[in-house]
TrEMBL record, chain A:
Annotated signal peptide: none
Proteasome alpha-type subunits domain ranges (all copies): 6-28
Protein name as it appears in the record: Proteasome subunit alpha type
Keywords: Cytoplasm, Nucleus, Proteasome
Alphabetized Pfam families for the sequence: Proteasome (PF00227), Proteasome_A_N (PF10584)
Domain of life from the UniProt record: Eukaryota
UniProtKB/TrEMBL annotation, chain B:
Swiss-Prot/TrEMBL GO biological process terms: proteolysis involved in protein catabolic process
Domain of life the protein comes from: Eukaryota
Provenance organism: Cylindrotheca closterium
Function recorded in the entry: Component of the proteasome, a multicatalytic proteinase complex which is characterized by its ability to cleave peptides with Arg, Phe, Tyr, Leu, and Glu adjacent to the leaving group at neutral or slightly basic pH. The proteasome has an ATP-dependent proteolytic activity.
PROSITE patterns: PROTEASOME_BETA_1, PROTEASOME_BETA_2
Signal peptide: none
One Pfam family this sequence matches: Proteasome
Subunit structure as annotated in this protein's UniProt entry: Component of the proteasome complex.
Annotated compartments: Cytoplasm; Nucleus
PANTHER family: METALLOPROTEASE TLDD (PTHR32194), PROTEASOME SUBUNIT BETA TYPE-1 (PTHR32194:SF2)
Protein name (record): Proteasome subunit beta
Keywords: Cytoplasm, Nucleus, Proteasome
Amino acid sequence: MFRNQYDTDVTVWSPEGRLLQVEYAMESVKQGSACVGLRSNDYCVLGALKRSVSELSSHQKKLLEIDDHMAMGIAGLTADARSLAKYMRNECLNHKYVYGDNIPPAVLMSDLADKHQRTTQTYVRRPFGVGLLVAGVDPQRNSCHLYQTCPSGNLYEFYASAIGARSQSARTYLEKHYESFPASSKDELIVHALQALAGCVSGDDELTKENGSIAVVGKNQNYILIEVEELQPYLDKLEIKRNDDDDAEEEESEDAEAMET
Amino acid sequence: MAFRSKPLRSFGPTVIPHGQIENTEGNVTLGKIDHGVTENPYERRFSPYDFNGGTCIAIAGADYAVIAADTRLSSGYEILSRNMSKLHKLTGKCILGSAGCKTDVDQLRSVLDIKMKVYQHNHRKPMSTPAVAQMLGNTLYYKRFFPYYAFNVFGGIDEEGKGAIYSYDAIGSFERTAVTATGSGQAYVIPLLDNVISHRNRTDEKRDLPKEEVVELVKDVFISCGERDIYTGDQVEIAVITKDGIETIMFDLKAD
């Protein structure tokens, strides 16, 4: 009801105690195409559905390397995300130069969240219109982590998460399967990520090697990006899995019919 | 105490007016600022540089590059370490070998690593060997008026798969060559390499050497070098770079 009067500046509270500009920025994240992240004890996998403007254009990159031990997936304003990536890369290099080791992801994410918050409490700036999924390996604790930031400056750590358009289907899939992730192998994690992404495509589209992409970091695995040709073997495993699930569903429905008299 | 331009007893060289330096034998050498590095164990004023010794060589082949350096780290007449590598892998296809002042060498490498990572972020691929060579030259020249005391040889595989090595001076002048050597044992090693690799002053047919023969040659070269140069010895670290990767061989030298 009061939305329109209190949404002009980021520094204005609404009567319900909300910062509407920040919430509008979070809408921008929901408009971006889907990005999923999941982790086991040894690996952290990010998957993204790359959107293309038209058949003639290329697909927009959504997975970026931050450092050997950190990857980032984005949903929302790509330009904002690239600016943040530049900042994060710089921080990583600086830390490596000064302390001789990779920056712990938790430290960088904490600084990143503060950077987001600063934009919500000043007149002259606007919130970042992008949600980030950051996968990283902590060098000292030797552990994998997945973090999510949003324009409000909130920082959460996840076992598995999904952001962007139609990401609820991915989240549902991940909720169903997340308990099996810690023991999963790298390849199994990748197939899970693709399976989660497959539910986020719109309408008639499907997940192909052109519009899917995967990034992996791990304890003994520097950042790698799996795209196009290299992605096909994992997509093939996906087809088989989907067929198995379909067969299982058909059997279940047949049993149900048999019980009805 | 007032600064004396002349010590009470003439142990070390004195600075004579007109910029000439007299050493204890009474010989006069022309205008050099002695950083207390190799000629004079007594420092007359604070020198930001130390000379940590060692020799590096590099040889380029048709489809390989060999880069080798001894592993002795010294200061003055003392050995600080018998097992300190002078080779630094920059990408999967190129290695930087540096002699000189170790702290400057380490700093140069940190700076290069950062610049190369930034390149990799922006270009989404590792730097090619000729690109690194150019960047190293530029990085050294950046400190033209307070140089990195690093004498570099840089070797790797270029974009066509051929061996590429580059030799540098401390302020960034560089050249792509077939053979190079730098460091304390440079003068002992270059004549030998000129004859055997570059085929100078020989009457027999020149032939392309396979990498295994070159590695054996490098071992002999370092044995000779270690005989006469006090700063070279202990072990040689030999890296053979091909398009398939980097192979490292350690070879023992005399520890005296």
